[in-house]
Amino acid sequence: MTDSPALRTALAYHHAWTGGDFELAMTHVCDDIVCLAPSGRLDGAAAFRQFMGPFAQIATRVELLAAFGDDTTAVVMYDTDTVPVKDAPGAECVTVTDGKITWMRIVFDRVPFEQARSA
Amino acid sequence: MTDSPALRTALAYHHAWTGGDFELAMTHVCDDIVCLAPSGRLDGAAAFRQFMGPFAQIATRVELLAAFGDDTTAVVMYDTDTVPVKDAPGAECVTVTDGKITWMRIVFDRVPFEQARSA
């Protein structure tokens, strides 16, 4: 299952941020990444960092549910517990070019996070 | 990529509901399916049908972004336009046993659907 160049990069990124080393995770992200997130499109590593960094900080448990890939595309699905919300799964579909994540579509449900914020 | 028993079933289910034949899609779903949806856990095909059937009816466009699998697990990620919400991506991680989907974790963002409902 890890015999995929794209998946190797996706998992390196995943294990870095879930292991608490977000700077290491960012080394797998292209400067020009385009990330389609529930809140909208993010252009570039700085915008991506602002989005994903805070989430990595509040995650208290991450469990990989599935990880697959081919030469250029990988999908990672995981469940997380976070400080405000338990059981918050997410899925990422990434394109990898020259060992860096150049495109990411990330899907998760914002409702429980909004509920926690307004509680 | 389709050389996976689990993925064959996941895609048969996917192509059936996106092709407008939800009853055909349900033939790939185990009577005892457990589905973990954003709104909570659904037990059994009847509960699953109540959840997924209405969504299939409002989908106007479905684009497969990625589909991978192995013997027992598959992941499908797609983008959809629906009558109330455009650009509503979803991801499904399924377990397949004896050619039927017995477990599904489905992830999507409920926020735009709630916004459309209250608009």
Structure description:
The structure is a homodimer of 119-residue chains. Chain A is built from four helices and six strands. Chain A has a single domain, classed as Roll (Nuclear Transport Factor 2, Chain: A), CATH 3.10.450.50. Chain A has a six-stranded mixed β-sheet with strand order 2-1-6-5-4-3, covered by helices on one side. Chain A has 119 residues and is of the alpha+beta class. Chains A and B meet through strand 3, strand 4, strand 5 and strand 6 of A and strand 3, strand 4, strand 5 and strand 6 of B.
Short note summarizing the structure:
2 copies of one chain form a homodimer. Chain A has helices at 5-18, 22-26, 45-58, 111-118; strands at residues 29-37, 40-43, 59-69, 73-82, 90-97, 100-108.
Index terms:
34% helix; homodimer; 4 helices; globular; 6-stranded mixed β-sheet; Nuclear Transport Factor 2, Chain: A; alpha+beta; 119 residues; 43% strand
Write the layout of secondary structure elements.
The structure is a homodimer of 119-residue chains.
Chain A lengths: L4 H14 L3 H5 L2 E9 L2 E4 L1 H14 E11 L3 E10 L7 E8 L2 E9 L2 H8 L1
Parallel strand pairs in A: 1-6
Antiparallel strand pairs in A: 1-2, 3-4, 4-5, 5-6
